[in-house]
Amino acid sequence: MLHFDTDYMEGAHPEVMRRLMETNLEQTSGYGSDDYTCHARELIRQACGQPEAGVYFLVGGTQTNATVIDGLLARHEGVLGAETAHINVHEAGAIEASGHKVLTLPQHEGKLCAEEVEAYIADFYRDETYEHMVAPGMVYISHPTEYGTLYSLSELEALSRICRKANIPLYMDGARLGYGLAAPGTDVTLQDIARLCDVFYIGGTKVGALFGEAVVAPHAERLPHFFPLIKQHGALLAKGRLLGIQFETLFTDGLYLEMGKHAVRLAQKLKQGFVQKGYKLHMDSPTNQQFVCLPNADIDRLSAHATFELWGPRGEEETVVRFVTSWATREADVDALIDLL
Amino acid sequence: MLHFDTDYMEGAHPEVMRRLMETNLEQTSGYGSDDYTCHARELIRQACGQPEAGVYFLVGGTQTNATVIDGLLARHEGVLGAETAHINVHEAGAIEASGHKVLTLPQHEGKLCAEEVEAYIADFYRDETYEHMVAPGMVYISHPTEYGTLYSLSELEALSRICRKANIPLYMDGARLGYGLAAPGTDVTLQDIARLCDVFYIGGTKVGALFGEAVVAPHAERLPHFFPLIKQHGALLAKGRLLGIQFETLFTDGLYLEMGKHAVRLAQKLKQGFVQKGYKLHMDSPTNQQFVCLPNADIDRLSAHATFELWGPRGEEETVVRFVTSWATREADVDALIDLL
Amino acid sequence: MLHFDTDYMEGAHPEVMRRLMETNLEQTSGYGSDDYTCHARELIRQACGQPEAGVYFLVGGTQTNATVIDGLLARHEGVLGAETAHINVHEAGAIEASGHKVLTLPQHEGKLCAEEVEAYIADFYRDETYEHMVAPGMVYISHPTEYGTLYSLSELEALSRICRKANIPLYMDGARLGYGLAAPGTDVTLQDIARLCDVFYIGGTKVGALFGEAVVAPHAERLPHFFPLIKQHGALLAKGRLLGIQFETLFTDGLYLEMGKHAVRLAQKLKQGFVQKGYKLHMDSPTNQQFVCLPNADIDRLSAHATFELWGPRGEEETVVRFVTSWATREADVDALIDLL
Amino acid sequence: MLHFDTDYMEGAHPEVMRRLMETNLEQTSGYGSDDYTCHARELIRQACGQPEAGVYFLVGGTQTNATVIDGLLARHEGVLGAETAHINVHEAGAIEASGHKVLTLPQHEGKLCAEEVEAYIADFYRDETYEHMVAPGMVYISHPTEYGTLYSLSELEALSRICRKANIPLYMDGARLGYGLAAPGTDVTLQDIARLCDVFYIGGTKVGALFGEAVVAPHAERLPHFFPLIKQHGALLAKGRLLGIQFETLFTDGLYLEMGKHAVRLAQKLKQGFVQKGYKLHMDSPTNQQFVCLPNADIDRLSAHATFELWGPRGEEETVVRFVTSWATREADVDALIDLL
């Protein structure tokens, strides 16, 4: 069976495992106060070009989003995001469980449109009853998006400019950031992100770590009292050094980007395979997730040989289907899948 | 100046005030345990044809919605409503502040479409990832809607049937229920509502009371432990008898419906005035709220003589404007406004 | 039957009712934007000697506490109060429902001890694990306390000094403030309170209004974005002018204090009655609530003629019992009760 | 330097690491739907003697407590625990952040007294105002407690009987359960716990795993819809199989208990060391945590050679200090520490 369900089907990159093994019986203090975590923090600051950044390590994406958003919003504010945003659809109401509304805007290939964000904020304050409504208190984007698409540098600059003008933070969910940074044709670097976003996270779970997400606040004062908030959200790992060791490894010798490139190359190869066989792409994604409209008969046929995800409920005749590669995907598996199309 | 901003610009119906005055120095126990409240409860049960109904009196609409929804939903569930639902737009995030997501569907003249509710629920459980999503745990409708429109009996029956099939409660926000029951052509009675909804509230604030909303659960066990929840939501009035006396008055000698009829008759007269002058209705409302598209020049001209609400931010050339009548509206004021058009 | 259960058994002071009646059919804008509310706000600012104060009118005490505390605390902070604090015992978990922990200290006749508050804060930050604990983010006191007792000016100054040193707000629950200000021997004035507290509320529900509490923030910026928070908490009255008219009346011609004096004089007379009959006071209260230890046999005997509250569960032989007077208590009733002892 | 700060200073038991390594590149589905997790679940059911139990794997203790308590309580209920309970002191308000109050009772060597729990519940419902108070909706105990002490079987049976009589669940926080089960003299087995508690968790983080806690509900229907709640709390690990593999290893060949025995034997040896040197125990703990009252001079002297935790803020002359052993503690280190005393 060939597995293309998602990018968290394996454990961790072998180098990550090697480091976890060789440090296993060392004794360190807990909750991220150890030297490995300290070093990982420093490496991330360097990679971002932000020597004063606040860097925090959490375990998973949903808890990271919930904790950051809770840390950024006042009680009367909500978070603006695309209707397809992970926080709006697939986090089981974690944002609302912390008391905050997700305010939605249309998605354009999974992305927010800067002009629409600007208009939303302007319209909000021009509404006479705005104090009865949830104020837009921050903007959430994902990069790559839930559809594998990417913001261009100019799109990101536009969003950043609007947020700064409105004096609200721009937050980027980087669950798959490695696959975005490694995409062919992207003009957005990690340093751009650190310059343009107020808070973002660098995803580890889906990019070579066993688990872990690194929250970066280039201006650390943007997330005051964040440590107790992490604890309150149940997102503080006792053996924090596990996160430190993993991110130290990911940010040594370019491993993070290298893994990204591997996955993206194979995903693009797979996309070409679909296109050449005449299938219709649901979205033209430059990263490691590929969305294809498959006739249900093809879905049934392929399911005997490969696993992948239906994107939403099964349609009457055809259904959008997602194929995902990762740092661990074998080229032979991609070739085998293409042969099956 | 003529006032058509809303239906809560005056105090209470004179008969309500008379009763509050004549009972003012009586001593009663607090929190709704007094005889007036007991009697009001009984009158409402009779009017609803539900002798076993749970009846609770709260102060205002937003707190009522937040408390009822909190009482009906499990933690993993959200409330389905139209995108224009009051709980989604104009309650400053009160539902989310209690931890619950508002799940939205398109509005059709302010109403939910039963088929779309059914499809939403069906699609939800057909999605393989549904346990990562907020489950539709109840349906919220308003009657009249935020646009003054009404469900027909068959529409209400369809929603009720779908909810019961899905085993989730149907909740009706009746902030302006009196104006709905009194509308010409409606085939929905209070007893229909009590038969078809699991919980609803009869609005007092906008229909002749100083304040107050009566929550009705025809099957009282649908809202277990509701009293402490009212307290927890800060919605328990110390001098509960104020609510009891008011609703006792509203439900004596048909006052509630009589007030409704008065307001609706004048609103319809006003609507005819707009239509005859050639203005475009934004919505054809059979109740006490009228929504008209007015050129901005007309808005400016009328504003010198009358007050009314812009519905949303001011448009470039024309804007949707709301005119509202109430139990207290004077016919002379309506006539004067029509003359001004 | 003589009623001494509590101070919210009647409606409102006749002058309040007269004003509500004579303004009943006036039309005003909603949510406290009317002239009456504006004037009431001004009168309270004057009475407090704080011309720039933020003044907000809410409906009841629990919702006021929940909304203010939610407005003052960051997410990682809790509110310090006496173990007997109303917010800790009798608000059905409203504070926790907003996400905040009530941190308790021992009560001394219902009061917090300034030295214990200071030690708590100092110990907290000396604990190496303090970031795993809920930070003391504000101090809650009630004046009069739940036991009818009062802070002296020097006690209040000590608390204020400690809070300002720790840079956390001091908040006073003044549900029965009128009875405190009018107590014989108190050296605390409303202007002292406004000078020493960061936020407090002037109770109307228990002191002559139908309902209503006036939140005062002498430095308005202490409660930023408080209006949408009131709405979010379901504590915004549509017909806000009802609150404005009531507080305008209470703060005209010294009515608020006059009512306080009446109730306190009768409560002290009643206390003397108990003492002269040899009963043991549970607490020596200078205000309108009196707590007496009564043998259960006496409770049963008195219950045939008077109503009053058991304070906690009934004891085996004797029980603490509360008798309360109000602005509306008749001297004849007090005399009759004393005769029954 | 000798480290006795806590029991989460190392990584995982070598056998756990070996299994993680050898399965690292296998591909499995996410979120605990894999075969390893399925098998681990089965092994735990067997060890508990509860073939129908619901078993869920979460990442850490605070998130587990918050999620389980949120799953067990209705909105108007709180959780009863000792004043020293971890949920009351060291979880940064995570329980309150989910909207629930922690109701505290005195601790007796870290434990709840069954009679006091019974009296609390009885008093609560005998209080006439109980609907204004937070209802005791469940009981939280830890075993071992935060002070390393253990319930006896008869104490646990008494608590269970009281909870069942009151129809509220008994929940055990087993963060250090392995050290409790392995303690000399305990008469409480895992099967006893599964018989007497409604929900409990078996701690992995502190007992040989990298991280992970196994929630067990012997009657699975006690935690309905628990999966989406885990997701909502941000406690769902994407690579769920990491938890499955770890717990499969812990519950194979008696490893969990074996690790417990090792740590407890060394802790008891250390305790004897303290006693023989004349130090005063703060608590006589039979498990892996030892609490000793040390003169501050001794603390300073020892700190040059060993790490350990002050328990609360430093006292004026002496301070309670905690020494902890774990599955990984070396006997030579214990001997070296004893020599230093």
Automatic annotation (TrEMBL), chains A, B, C, D:
Naturally occurring in which organism (per UniProt): Phocaeicola coprocola
GO BP annotation list: amino acid metabolic process
SUPFAM superfamilies per the UniProt record, alphabetical: PLP-dependent transferases (SSF53383)
Record bears the keyword Calcium: no
Keyword Hydrolase: no
Regions crossing the membrane: none
UniProt superkingdom: Bacteria
Alphabetical list of Pfam families matching this protein: Beta_elim_lyase
InterPro entries named among the record's database cross-references: ArAA_b-elim_lyase/Thr_aldolase, PyrdxlP-dep_Trfase, PyrdxlP-dep_Trfase_major, PyrdxlP-dep_Trfase_small
Protein name per its UniProtKB record: Low specificity L-threonine aldolase
Signal peptide: none
Cofactors (names): pyridoxal 5'-phosphate
Family (UniProt): Belongs to the threonine aldolase family.
UniProtKB keywords: Pyridoxal phosphate
